[in-house]
Structure formats: structure tokens, C-alpha cells
Design a protein that fits this description.
Elements lengths: L1 H9 L27 H14 L5 E5 L2 H4 L3 H16 L3 E5 L4 E2 L4 H8 L8 E2 L1 H15 L3 E4 L12 E2 L2 E2 L9 H19 L1
Parallel strand pairs: 1-2, 2-5
Antiparallel strand pairs: 3-4, 6-7
Helix pairs in contact: 1-7
């Protein structure tokens, strides 16, 4: 929903290549994800590889704090970024949105009862974003994108009284659409 909305508003098209818990880059250590997701993950990696030669701009949005727990993933990501940088391709690392410590659906229920629920944030997302910034500093063609300073996540898991999250680390449709609004100006600059 994020790229769909941005593309329609700004007149660009994005090819979204994804699979559950799978980072669709060559060499991804898919064996760590659920067994039922292995085959779809490998298929999506192959799909992404078909488009890499002509791609000039790549965006990676990942549950970084979980993926970074794998040393192999770190090696594969570093190799991928080095290759894309050497090829002169622009890679944008979408930093992880604030990570919740529990499912926000209970907060929604408490809010409906007139209470003011608090959902704590896990520090792991900030650690992951720090690592992404280190990659961006290492390679000139890599940019780490963070929209937290916009204030969008100031009242996480809510924004303007609406629940933004589906679970601890995924934005729901409303959250993705509203997030695209705050990211709009940055994407105008990227696409120019």
C-alpha cells in the first residue's frame, strides 16, 4: 500500500518482490524462516535476480532487527550492497519503523473502553537502524531512509486516533497509507 499510494501520487511504478520473512536478495539464508516459506522465498529471490541487471533504484524494507540476528544474513547483505554500489545503483534502506513490545490489538480494545493504553517500544529497532546507517556511511550509493523525525510515530501504535499497526512490526493498511503521506516529500526528491 505504501508504494502503491506513492506511485499513484507521484507518477512512478515500483515492482514489489516479496515473500513472507524472506529478503529477496541473492544468497539470503532462507533456511531460518518457516519451512513452508522456503519454496516461495527461493522463487521470489529468483524473480528479483531477473530484474537486478536493469534496476537503477532498489528499496529494501525488511524486519531488520530479526534479520540482523543472523551472521550469514549480515554477510549476504553487505555483499549485496557492495555489488550494487560498485554497479552504480542507488539502494535505499527503509529503516525499521518502531518495534512494539506486544501486539497492539489489546491497546485498541482498551482505547475503545475509554482507557489510555500504552504500548512500549522495543529498543531493537533502533539498534537495527543504527546498523543501516553504518551501511549507508560505508557505501556512497546506499541511503538509509528514516521518517521518525516527522513525528508520525510519536503516539505509536496510534496516529491521529487511528491504529497504525497490524502486529508488533507490521503497519496495517491505514498505517502504510498514512506513512506514505509523510514520506512523500522525500520520495519526490528521490524520484527527481
Amino acid at each position: 500500500h505504501f508504494f502503491d499510494r506513492l506511485g499513484k501520487e507521484q507518477g512512478f511504478k515500483a515492482r514489489i518482490i516479496t515473500a513472507s520473512s524472506c529478503v529477496t536478495i541473492p544468497g539470503f539464508d532462507y533456511q531460518r524462516i518457516a519451512e513452508w516459506a522456503h519454496k516461495p522465498c527461493l522463487a521470489q529471490i529468483a524473480q528479483a535476480e531477473r530484474y537486478l541487471p536493469e534496476a537503477t533504484m532498489i528499496f529494501l524494507a525488511v524486519y531488520w532487527s530479526w534479520q540482523f540476528d543472523s551472521p550469514k544474513f549480515n554477510d549476504v547483505l553487505n555483499e549485496f550492497l557492495a555489488q550494487q554500489n560498485a554497479a552504480g545503483k542507488k539502494v535505499y534502506l527503509m529503516e525499521q519503523e518502531p518495534l512494539l513490545d506486544k501486539n497492539p490489538q489489546r491497546a485498541l480494545r482498551f482505547k475503545a473502553l475509554g482507557l489510555h493504553p500504552e504500548v512500549a517500544l522495543s529498543h531493537k529497532y533502533k539498534e537495527a537502524n543504527t546498523r543501516l546507517n553504518a551501511y549507508a556511511e560505508k557505501y556512497p550509493a546506499i541511503t538509509s531512509l528514516n521518517f521518525e523525525q516527522t513525528g508520525f510515530f510519536a503516539n505509536t501504535p496510534f496516529h491521529q486516533e487511528e491504529l497504525l499497526y497490524l502486529d508488533e512490526h507490521h503497519l496495517n493498511e491505514v498505517g502504510a497509507a498514512k506513512y506514505s503521506e509523510v514520506a512523500g516529500d522525500a520520495f519526490k526528491k528521490i524520484m527527481d
